[in-house]
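Subject: Calcineurin-like phosphoesterase domain-containing protein structure
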Amino acid sequence: MSDPASRADRRDFITKLSTLAVGAGALAGVTAAAPAAEAAESDAPLKAGPPVLQNPTSTSMAVAWSVDQAATGFVEYGETPELGSKAYAPENGLNPLNSRFLQARITGLTPGNKIYYRTVTTPIQFANAYKIVAGEPIQGEVYEFRTPSAEPTAASFAVLNDTHEKLEVLQAATGQLAAEPADLTVWNGDIFNDIRSDDQIIAQVLRPADAPFAAQRPVLYTSGNHDVRGVHARALSQAMIEWPDQKGLGRNFAVRQGPLALVGLDTGEDKPDAHPVFAGLANFEPYREAQGAWLAEALQRADIATAPYLVVFCHIPLWGRPGDNPGDTLEGYASYCRQAQRAWHPHLAKAGAQLLVCGHTHRFRYDEPNDQRAYGQIVGGGPSLSGGTIIRGKADEKTLTVTATSLDGKGLGEWRIPPRQG
């Protein structure tokens, strides 16, 4: 892994970004939380952002989008461009009303089917309980997607990590994704430096580089340690929608697409919960243990267990190099997460995982399988055009081919992985 000088460079990079961000937040008067919907009337036209597909299953898909004033909305969808069905997201009998975030989940779909959809957003002027005025609905562009399915004989994924709010990095990454789309994109942590406002969440998750990067192919998120930091970090689920029915583990995922099983885990912070910097707010150690129990069950699901290829994603590497910080001491910060390794590796080994994809260190590397683990570990690079990476996987019945390139186009390696035995 990186030497002490490179680790110092990484820390200096993050410190400078955080210092600049805090100063900017203070000047702008950033608040910890925005109201769900503004009561004041606005003469400005409503602006609705592009949809972001998330949390795909074989029979459902979540859609999130941004607004800039109080509004409600739903998703109109169907198997033809004429649409015809509607998906709402009511809670306790109320349809949503929010000034920044809207979302809905389409359910009852057929695996592998093409679905056409658009968002429909209506501005709301809410003076009081007896004076509510709905504006003219705004229909978004019609997009299409396919629900995941085990049936295709080929499938692909792309991985981003450690973008750290760097606009030129986001522009390069979303541009490459648009030029060569994958079936599924995994954003493998550290989208942020730390989270202080709704504006920041929208800019990074729902409108990165102001591009509709996930309107036709869904994105799968794993959290990085910087994505759980900041006074507003708990609001991230407004845009990074949690997976339903996962009992407090809403950022874990297990998705089957063609011959690929993709599993995502959340390594959380890079220091022990007892570290004084967290002021008693961190509770990641039991969280990682609970994910181990979830992982054992997820890997036994029929769709995951029968996939020819099993690829696992988490932000902090599970394996380090000699002398690396394991993240369970009060000194320094993790270069790898020893607790997660101990909680998760036995299940990955038993299931025959073939590849672990991580980030965090800001230095690209590939660790060959060894006596400790039968799977390789690939670590994506950092937030610059020369150091940032896109990792891609393309699988068919015979081979999973994994490639890594820098954001400025330099090839970093290619690896070929045969199907799992068993």
